[in-house]
Predict the structure.
Amino acid sequence: MKVSREQAELNRERVLDAAARLFRERGFPGLGVADLMKSAGLTHGACYGQFESKEDLMVQACQRGFEQTAEWMSGAGDRSPDPLKALISKYLSPAHRDAQGGGCIAAALVTEATREGPDVQHAFTEGVETLVDTLAEFVQNGSKRERRLQAMAVFASMMGALMLARAVDDETMSKDFLRAVKSELLES
Amino acid sequence: MKVSREQAELNRERVLDAAARLFRERGFPGLGVADLMKSAGLTHGACYGQFESKEDLMVQACQRGFEQTAEWMSGAGDRSPDPLKALISKYLSPAHRDAQGGGCIAAALVTEATREGPDVQHAFTEGVETLVDTLAEFVQNGSKRERRLQAMAVFASMMGALMLARAVDDETMSKDFLRAVKSELLES
DNA sequence: ATTATCTATAGATCTATAGATAATGC
DNA sequence: ATTATCTATAGATCTATAGATAATGC
């Protein structure tokens, strides 16, 4: 039953990765501790050896998810003459829309984060800050503050479009949301 | 215990109004049937005389909420020389941010709607369609399709900014999200 | 007689903990 | 000896239903 300290750490990592993915797919209240631990190949009792509470788990899963999203974002822009446009195209693609568990964690959990306690909300805030920083590096013109505000506007617009594209059950309308915001952002 | 048919209908309306408000505030899984009925002054057993299931209730609460939001939107634009700009300013105000229960239902429940069954998702889709129609009437230039795409882009951008402004626990950043998208939308 | 609502409860599910188990690490 | 994980379970909560109750509507 007991495993090596090294294996225990690997297990904890596996739980966190599963949590970061499954919370995005099902939301915070939609994923129970037992289900999550089972996905990582453990029983639910083991959760409380690794984490203080479900809230602690949500906080750490947010941090993990934002790290992944930030990496995904900077990766999308790299090796492109206009990294911001490259990222916008990737963010607003049907592929991203259909891969909620591996996509932008902000788009997957904004409203749910608002309904959780201050610790989750704070982890979420810090994550958003990181994403805005990442995006701001891709903005070409303007003062530092202008670039940051520009990044915030681009991020909010993309996120809104992605979420609406996911929420509607009409494929045409869904693609139109992606297209509409994409052409709006790529023009300016 | 029994009330008049007329009173029963009033009760049902009161339940629906409470549901439309409380689901926006707490999310679908966050509001239980017992709590909701108590808010309307009834016991939870009465719910199943008025609605088939919690899902049925969610569907009807969505319809009610979207009606209210559509009215709120067209009201915001009326009696203004540029109704679209008037609406954008109202939508992206701190007052709207702080009044989630009475504000845009799409911004309050997008992600949660995605996690519910097809009936809720369809009610949500129809509601979004109504809001886009309302917004499209305020767009001045372009063909019908261009005006509609423009309305979709404006809606997605506003919604994303409002949700991020609600999610972060830093007042400066929150206001910056509103400001950033507002100036972006009002310029063009 | 009909029926809107209430009371009581079934059955499922969820977070969290206590104590047992068995392999690690000294 | 320590401890990561498991088993079992407590206690709370949630949706839904059955049957009782009492006022309406004929």
